[in-house]
Amino acid sequence: MAESNLHVTLKFLGQIDEARVDAIGDALTAAAQRTPAFDVNVRGLGAFPTATRARILWVGLAPAAPLVGLAAAVDAALAGLGIERESRPFAAHVTLGRVRESQRNLALADALARPVDCGRLAVTRISLMRSELHPRGARYTELASVLLAGAASPVE
Predict the structure, then answer these.
(1) Residue 92 and residue 42: Cα distance in Å, rounded?
(2) What is the homologous superfamily of the domain 3-147 according to CATH?
(3) Quick check: is 93 catalytic?
(4) Three-class SS state of 5
(5) Which residue among the candidates 7, 34, 85, 139 is catalytic per the annotation?
(6) Where in the chain are the domains?
(7) Taking the model in full, what pTM does it have?
(8) How crowded is the C-beta side of 68, counted as CA atoms within 13 Å?
(9) DSSP for 94-149?
(10) Average pLDDT value over all residues in the chain
(11) Tell me: the pLDDT tens digits for 95-143?
(12) Is the pLDDT of residue 89 over 80?
Protein backbone atom coordinates (compact mmCIF):
# COMPACT_ATOMS: atom_id res chain seq x y z
CA MET A 1 0.00 0.00 0.00
CA ALA A 2 1.34 3.45 -0.89
CA GLU A 3 2.32 5.56 2.12
CA SER A 4 -0.02 8.31 0.90
CA ASN A 5 -2.92 5.86 1.32
CA LEU A 6 -2.22 5.13 5.00
CA HIS A 7 -4.84 6.67 7.26
CA VAL A 8 -7.12 6.13 10.25
CA THR A 9 -10.80 5.88 9.37
CA LEU A 10 -12.71 7.64 12.15
CA LYS A 11 -16.05 7.14 10.39
CA PHE A 12 -16.93 5.62 7.04
CA LEU A 13 -19.65 7.67 5.34
CA GLY A 14 -20.17 5.71 2.14
CA GLN A 15 -21.64 7.56 -0.82
CA ILE A 16 -22.39 11.21 0.00
CA ASP A 17 -23.89 13.97 -2.12
CA GLU A 18 -21.30 16.61 -3.13
CA ALA A 19 -23.73 19.27 -1.90
CA ARG A 20 -23.20 17.98 1.68
CA VAL A 21 -19.40 18.36 1.70
CA ASP A 22 -19.44 21.88 3.20
CA ALA A 23 -21.88 20.91 5.96
CA ILE A 24 -19.81 17.81 6.76
CA GLY A 25 -16.68 19.98 6.85
CA ASP A 26 -18.42 22.32 9.31
CA ALA A 27 -19.40 19.37 11.51
CA LEU A 28 -15.81 18.10 11.46
CA THR A 29 -14.61 21.59 12.42
CA ALA A 30 -16.93 21.55 15.44
CA ALA A 31 -15.58 18.15 16.52
CA ALA A 32 -11.97 19.23 15.95
CA GLN A 33 -12.33 22.42 17.99
CA ARG A 34 -13.28 20.31 21.03
CA THR A 35 -10.37 17.87 20.61
CA PRO A 36 -6.76 18.80 21.39
CA ALA A 37 -4.00 17.48 19.12
CA PHE A 38 -2.28 14.39 20.55
CA ASP A 39 0.36 11.75 19.84
CA VAL A 40 -0.08 8.00 19.46
CA ASN A 41 2.38 5.14 19.31
CA VAL A 42 2.25 3.01 16.18
CA ARG A 43 2.80 -0.54 17.39
CA GLY A 44 1.56 -4.08 17.21
CA LEU A 45 0.32 -5.93 14.15
CA GLY A 46 -2.99 -7.70 13.77
CA ALA A 47 -5.66 -8.82 11.37
CA PHE A 48 -9.41 -8.73 10.92
CA PRO A 49 -11.37 -10.92 11.50
CA THR A 50 -8.60 -13.03 13.16
CA ALA A 51 -4.86 -13.50 12.80
CA THR A 52 -5.27 -17.07 11.55
CA ARG A 53 -7.94 -16.16 8.95
CA ALA A 54 -6.74 -12.69 7.98
CA ARG A 55 -8.63 -10.54 5.47
CA ILE A 56 -7.24 -7.16 6.55
CA LEU A 57 -3.77 -6.57 8.01
CA TRP A 58 -3.32 -3.62 10.37
CA VAL A 59 -0.93 -1.87 12.73
CA GLY A 60 -2.30 -0.69 16.07
CA LEU A 61 -2.33 2.78 17.64
CA ALA A 62 -1.93 3.40 21.37
CA PRO A 63 -3.12 4.90 23.53
CA ALA A 64 -6.45 4.30 21.82
CA ALA A 65 -8.48 6.56 24.15
CA PRO A 66 -7.77 9.87 22.33
CA LEU A 67 -8.72 8.29 18.99
CA VAL A 68 -11.82 6.70 20.49
CA GLY A 69 -12.83 10.12 21.83
CA LEU A 70 -12.14 11.80 18.49
CA ALA A 71 -14.16 9.16 16.62
CA ALA A 72 -17.05 9.66 19.07
CA ALA A 73 -16.90 13.45 18.61
CA VAL A 74 -16.98 13.04 14.82
CA ASP A 75 -19.84 10.54 15.07
CA ALA A 76 -21.87 12.91 17.27
CA ALA A 77 -21.20 15.93 15.05
CA LEU A 78 -22.27 14.03 11.92
CA ALA A 79 -25.35 12.64 13.66
CA GLY A 80 -26.48 16.27 13.85
CA LEU A 81 -26.60 16.17 10.04
CA GLY A 82 -28.75 13.05 10.04
CA ILE A 83 -25.86 10.67 9.32
CA GLU A 84 -26.46 7.38 11.13
CA ARG A 85 -24.33 6.77 14.22
CA GLU A 86 -21.73 4.03 14.17
CA SER A 87 -22.99 0.75 15.65
CA ARG A 88 -19.61 -0.98 16.03
CA PRO A 89 -16.97 0.01 18.58
CA PHE A 90 -14.06 2.02 17.18
CA ALA A 91 -10.79 0.07 16.69
CA ALA A 92 -7.68 2.30 16.60
CA HIS A 93 -5.65 0.99 13.66
CA VAL A 94 -4.12 1.77 10.28
CA THR A 95 -4.92 -0.71 7.51
CA LEU A 96 -1.74 -1.96 5.85
CA GLY A 97 -3.26 -4.22 3.24
CA ARG A 98 -5.82 -6.83 2.31
CA VAL A 99 -5.40 -10.58 1.90
CA ARG A 100 -6.90 -11.76 -1.38
CA GLU A 101 -7.68 -15.30 -0.29
CA SER A 102 -8.74 -15.84 3.29
CA GLN A 103 -7.47 -19.19 4.43
CA ARG A 104 -6.07 -20.55 7.66
CA ASN A 105 -2.45 -19.31 7.83
CA LEU A 106 -0.57 -20.15 11.03
CA ALA A 107 2.71 -18.66 9.71
CA LEU A 108 1.02 -15.30 9.21
CA ALA A 109 -0.57 -15.48 12.66
CA ASP A 110 2.89 -16.19 14.14
CA ALA A 111 4.41 -13.22 12.28
CA LEU A 112 1.60 -10.92 13.45
CA ALA A 113 2.21 -11.95 17.08
CA ARG A 114 5.78 -10.63 17.06
CA PRO A 115 6.30 -7.26 18.78
CA VAL A 116 6.54 -4.32 16.38
CA ASP A 117 7.11 -0.68 17.33
CA CYS A 118 7.04 1.87 14.49
CA GLY A 119 7.40 5.04 16.59
CA ARG A 120 5.14 7.97 17.40
CA LEU A 121 2.67 9.82 15.23
CA ALA A 122 1.27 13.31 15.82
CA VAL A 123 -2.49 13.48 15.28
CA THR A 124 -3.18 17.10 14.32
CA ARG A 125 -6.08 17.11 11.86
CA ILE A 126 -9.18 15.43 10.51
CA SER A 127 -9.71 15.02 6.77
CA LEU A 128 -12.80 14.23 4.78
CA MET A 129 -11.64 11.82 2.11
CA ARG A 130 -13.15 10.47 -1.08
CA SER A 131 -12.07 6.95 -1.99
CA GLU A 132 -12.35 5.55 -5.47
CA LEU A 133 -11.71 1.86 -5.98
CA HIS A 134 -9.55 0.87 -8.92
CA PRO A 135 -8.08 -2.49 -9.97
CA ARG A 136 -4.69 -1.47 -8.51
CA GLY A 137 -6.20 -0.27 -5.22
CA ALA A 138 -8.04 2.69 -3.78
CA ARG A 139 -7.28 6.27 -4.81
CA TYR A 140 -7.92 8.90 -2.11
CA THR A 141 -8.76 12.59 -2.58
CA GLU A 142 -8.95 15.03 0.32
CA LEU A 143 -12.18 17.04 0.17
CA ALA A 144 -11.77 18.98 3.43
CA SER A 145 -9.28 19.18 6.29
CA VAL A 146 -9.54 20.76 9.74
CA LEU A 147 -6.94 21.16 12.49
CA LEU A 148 -7.46 19.80 15.98
CA ALA A 149 -7.40 22.28 18.86
CA GLY A 150 -3.91 23.63 19.51
CA ALA A 151 -2.40 22.19 16.32
CA ALA A 152 -0.15 24.46 14.30
CA SER A 153 -0.95 25.07 10.66
CA PRO A 154 1.47 23.26 8.36
CA VAL A 155 3.96 25.47 6.53
CA GLU A 156 3.51 25.21 2.77
Answers:
(1) 10
(2) Cyclic phosphodiesterase (3.90.1140.10)
(3) yes
(4) helix
(5) 7
(6) 3-147
(7) 0.88
(8) 9
(9) EEEEE-SS----HHHHHHHHS--EEEEEEE-EEEEEEEEEETTEEEEEEEEEEEPB
(10) 91
(11) 998 888 778 889 989 999 999 999 999 999 999 999 888 887 778 899 9
(12) yes
